[in-house]
Each structure stands twice: as C-alpha cells, then as structure tokens.
Write a structure and sequence with these properties.
Two copies of one chain form a homodimer.
Chain A: H1 5-14, E1 28-37, H2 38-50, E2 57-60, E3 84-88, E4 91-96, E5 107-113, H3 115-124, H4 130-133, E6 140-146, E7 156-165, H5 169-176, E8 188-189, E9 215-221, H6 224-233, E10 237-241, E11 247-252, H7 253-256
Antiparallel strand pairs in A: 1-5, 1-10, 1-11, 2-5, 3-4, 3-10, 6-7, 7-9, 8-9
C-alpha cells in the first residue's frame, strides 16, 4: 500500500485505488477540486476571495494547466482524483475516474481546503471529534448568513457542526484558527439560532449530531458552500471531486497553518 | 475640513482636496488602487492570491463597477482618488485627477492593503516608527525572494524596513500579524543578508534608514511589489493611484484586523 502522496496519486491514476481518500496519506493535506472554464473562473476566484472562510483557496492552476504548482507540482488533476463528478448547467451529469477528454486549454482548476486538515489538528490536540468517533458524516446546515456574491456566484453559507464540552471551545478555536486555508477558526459557538438554525437534529447534509450533557455546538464554515453556489450559478461545465474522493496534495498539514508570529528573529 | 471618508472622497471629487492622503480620515483604512482590463484581471487576482503578503486584497470590484461593495459602497473609484497614474504597456504615460473617460465596462478595480494601517497600530501600541518620526519615506529594498508568478505577472518581493529596539520586535510582530490585509506580520527581523540585502543604506525606493545602537531591522512585505510586477508585465493599460494619493475606504483600521480567535462563544 503506497503511503506518500505521490505514490498514492500514481495508484489512483492506475486505478489501483478507487475509493474514498479519508485516512490515506495521513499528515498530508487533502483538497476539494473545482474545475471551470475560464469564462467563469474570474467570478469564482472572486467569490472565493470574498468568502474566504467557506471557500479557502489552497492553489489555483493557470488556465489549461493540471498541475498545482504549489500544492503538488507535477501532479495530474485530470487523472489523480479517484472519482470525479461532471456538472452541466448546474446538473450532475456523470461520474468518471478520468476527465482527460473533458479537459481543455480553457479550464481553470481550483483546490480548496477541507475540514480533514483541521480535524486532524483537533484530534492531535486532544479535542475529540464526535462524528469521527461515531463513524458518521459531519452534520451540516444551511445558515442564514449570505455569502458576498461575485458575478454569477451567490448563496448562503453552509456550516458544519462539532459538539464539544464547553471547556474545550477555546482550545478548538485556538487550534483551528491558524488553518485559514482549511476554514480556520469556528464562525460561532453556542445557540444555533444565531445562524438561523432551528433544530440541530434536522441537518441539511450529513448525519444528525449527538450532543451530550454540557456540550456546546461549535460551527465552522463548510466546503459545501461553494458547491451550492456552483449549483445555483449553473455554469456550462463544472468538474469536481466526488464527495469523499479528494485530491491528495504534497503539503503537510502544518504547512497549511500559519505561525501566529510569522515574523520572528533570525 | 471634512473628516469622514465619505465627505473626504466628495471633497476629492470636487477638487477641494488634491494632495497626499496621509493623515486624512485617521482610523480609516487607506488602500492602493490598481485598475486593469478584464483580459489581465484573472492573472492579477491570481498573482495576489499567490502572494498575499506583498499583495493583500481588500476588495475587488466586478468588471465595469467602480464601487467597492465591501470597502466603500457607493464610492466612485474613477473620481475619488486625488491623483491617478495611467500606464500603457508598462510605461507611465500621464497623471490625472479623473479617469472617467478611460474607464469602461471591461475594467476591474483592485484595492490592496497598505502599510499606513499597521503603522497606526504600531504607534497605538507604543512601537515607534522611525521614518514617521523623521518625516521621511520608509526605506524599501528589492529582496532576493521571488514572488510566485501568475500568468503574465512575476517579480521579486519588495520589502519595507522599520528599525526598532530588539525588545520591541515581538510586540511589532504580534501587533501587525492580525492585519493580514495590510501586509500582516514582518517577513523577517535581523540580518538583511537573509533577504539578499547587502547594505541597508542603499535603498531601492524611499529614504535611507537611521538605525541606532541596539536596534534590529524589521522587514515587511511591501506594496511596491505588485507595482514592479505590473511594470514588468506591461499590460496594455493599468491605472493606479499616484504614490501617497490613496483611496480612503469606509473600513475602520480594526475591521481589517482579524481577531486572534474569531470563534468565541455567544
């Protein structure tokens, strides 16, 4: 079983790995993939710039390039994701394991940060992550906060929720804040109504949560936000990873975190 | 004398204020302006995304819009900067105080963060800023660090330098780090050779520094970086503010800073 990102990507390309990527290449950043024709790429980049918490940009390729020069130089984004989804005018059309024949000089590829990165950091710092313990999907909700629109892209911010004992909330915020390129610090902790969420058990995506006595719901901006904006905007063509089938970068988790004082003497 | 950003911008539009903006609307963010035709705007936005410390994006208007919807809704970027510079194919062609006739539906306007913002924060927290005390320009140097290129844009990172007693370096880093949209924390403190700078007295831009006994040179990424990249890329047309003649936004300095723990309970 390969363990380096490069070897895993090669195994994916050869078809030896086809499933979800959770747990592969521990310690390395996994990313959401969005590919768009150039005509819509400026609007989407602007949407990400304006809504950094739900849409954190890790890397963007030049138009026509399929190698992310920072996140995974030399990789091939057309073949090294285990499963792709092809959307046309907002509708999911097909799933594929290779999108070479859909790719053109006109396509722009975005890698967006994902919560795997900060969840690893939480676990490493002793903050339990309930849905992982339970082997479920994280509960997600459409909040009443609107994203700042950009061109054809708009929509509500989707949030994910992780319950935890009140005394761990500060730690969770401190641990995740430096991971700005993976949704960063929570956007809210406490009363769900502050985000327009009436009933935590009625999730919009994922599985319902399990809250225990004395626990506080903690909300992070969620990567489903740009997916909703893409669906609503209905661009001619969008290619994404299939849920859970992420692109594995060469970046170590800690490279995505920012030191609290990047200055420092030397 | 008007004091609110809106009134100052109106006075600029009417020609009642024509000079440098330093000291106007204290407490409000001033920004660098870059306007480009859409053909080059994606590359430039990508260059900024890849080089956030020297090119921190505060706001970007939709193509053809001249009102920054976050930084100054309703403002007019075509008339409310006291002096503009028009560059064609990399050459400075003229200075103007109104660029309405050059603006078109195709133009994209960028507002980039500037060091005024973090210098105010330094002063407020008791970190003296030498060049301000001396009434000089900040010393700037072309470093040996290359920016990550994006399309037609590339070039070295330019840095500004502020000397300070060694015991204030940590404070300076801590105070400026949250101002990510205004160059953030220093990129280096100490030996200039680490940035390829041989002689601090030989500045590339601005005025030579005055270092006193026991002082450490502290370096920040500088907004001259995107200007050099623009000059080198030679786009058909670029409109910028003239040096020191900034755009005054409605944002308060503290709005540009990020709370260290944006989570927090409520």
């Amino acid at each position: 079983m390969p363990t380096t990102p490069k070897d895993i990507r090669a195994a994916i390309e050869e078809g030896a790995i086809r499933g979800q990527t959770s747990g592969l290449a521990p310690g390395f950043v996994q990313a959401n993939l969005v590919m768009l024709p150039m005509a819509d790429a400026f609007d989407f980049l602007l949407f990400c710039q304006r809504n950094e918490k739900p849409c954190p940009v890790i890397d963007v390729c030049e138009p026509g390039s399929y190698s992310p020069s920072w996140a995974a130089p030399g990789a091939d984004l057309r073949t090294q994701v285990p499963k792709y989804r092809v959307h046309r005018r907002g509708e999911l059309c097909e799933e594929r394991d290779d999108i070479r024949e859909l790719f053109s000089d006109d396509m722009v590829s975005f890698l967006l940060g994902c919560s795997f990165t900060f969840e690893s950091a939480l676990l490493a710092r002793g903050v339990p992550v309930r849905h992982i313990e339970l082997g479920r999907n994280v509960p997600m909700y459409v909040s009443d906060r609107e994203c700042r629109p950009a061109g054809i892209f708009s929509g509500p911010m989707v949030v994910s929720m992780r319950p935890m004992p009140a005394e761990l909330v500060d730690t969770a915020a401190r641990v995740t804040a430096p991971f700005r390129k993976a949704h960063g610090a929570p956007i809210h902790a406490g009363d769900p109504a502050a985000l327009g969420i009436r009933d935590l058990m009625r999730v919009d995506f994922g599985d319902p949560p399990e809250l225990r006595a004395g626990e506080v719901p903690v909300f992070w901006a969620c990567g489903v936000t740009p997916q909703m904006a893409l669906r609503r905007a209905k661009p001619e063509l969008v290619i994404t990873h299939a849920p859970g089938h992420m692109f594995i970068t060469d970046l170590r988790d800690e490279e995505l975190a920012e030191a609290p004082h990047p200055g420092g003497q030397s």
